[in-house]
């Protein structure tokens, strides 16, 4: 028996469709206006509602454009033809994923230089969904931040462009934190930056990594006093604390913070610290009882190990 066709009944608002398809609301509107890919129903109040058939079509179109098909050429194809095209496509490989990540990072930098915040957000959200959070953070966002930093130091990226990109990246990472549903009983990690450390994008990347790995995340933002961090751990029952120290600010005392935090935390709570500032004092930090993490990949491996230990 063949599978039943998706329902054509309108039922899903644009926000839910964006989450289910990996297409931002900006891209959805552009595809509808320019290419007529779907025709959602509008409520009396003007809200767009999409059907299961619309969602299926949008998913197919997104995957095909990821494979290199131009949306203008495939927008009006019937669903069976879209299915056939997708089935004929070669399977993704690590090489194709890396190429797609490099393309997304390049497109993001171009959008930054144009001060096009909507396009930047659309590219980043699409990359996060299509590539997965780990590849997105490691191969799209990290290289993008590095190139923006280098451009800023060389004056090829303006202060306005850097600020715009930071705002959009912060928004996308916050979106990722909200997307993941946490199962009951999931271990919890508290994420923050130390006092005087105001650069929070590294901490947000850590938080998004943890959420994607199935952890419940309490994100407390930048410049957090030690006493408040420790209190949050006690209130939330966290299994781990992750501190991000990307830059060393004037007057910042990361080692003192780590010693103080470790002394106040319960013995069974793991203290993790990462970022360039942590790597500079690795031996001292580890002597103080913190685990220094070199990369997000290592952080994910540690979370997996801690989750297994918590389940035993």
Structure, explained:
The protein has 312 residues and is an alpha/beta fold. It folds into three domains: 12-88, Multidrug-efflux Transporter Regulator, Chain: A, Domain 2 (Orthogonal Bundle), CATH 1.10.1660; 94-179, Methionine synthase domain (Methyltransferase, Methionine Synthase (B12-binding Domains), Chain A, domain 1, Orthogonal Bundle); 188-311, Rossmann fold. 60% of the residues lie in helices and 9% in strands. It has helices at 14-21, 25-35, 52-66, 71-74, 79-88, 94-113, 117-131, 133-153, 159-179, 201-212, 226-236, 254-264, 276-280, 282-287, 296-311; strands spanning 12-13, 41-42, 48-50, 188-192, 216-219, 240-244, 270-274, 291-293. Strands 5-4-6-7-8 form a five-stranded parallel beta sheet, sandwiched between helices. A three-stranded antiparallel beta sheet has the order 1-3-2. A hairpin with a 5-residue loop joins strand 2 and strand 3 (48-50). Helix 3 runs parallel beside helix 5. The protein is globular. The chain starts with 11 loop residues before the first strand and ends with a helix. The model has no long low-confidence stretch (mean pLDDT 88).
Low-pLDDT residue spans: none
Instruction: Please state the structural category.
Output: alpha/beta
Could you describe the largest sheet, including whether it forms a barrel?
5 strands, parallel
- Level-1 CATH class name of the largest domain: Alpha Beta
Mean pLDDT: 88
What is the H level of CATH, i.e. the homologous superfamily of the largest domain?
A: Cobalamin-binding domain
Strand content: 5-15%
How many beta-strand runs?
8
Distance between the termini: 44 Å
The rough form would be described as globular
Level-2 CATH architecture of the largest domain: 3-Layer(aba) Sandwich
Number of helices: 15
Question: How many structural domains?
Answer: 3
Share of helix, binned = 55-70%
Please provide the ordered H/E string of secondary-structure elements: EHHEEHHHHHHHEHEHEHEHHEH
CATH topology of the largest domain: Rossmann fold
Question: Spatial order of the strands in the main sheet?
Answer: 5-4-6-7-8
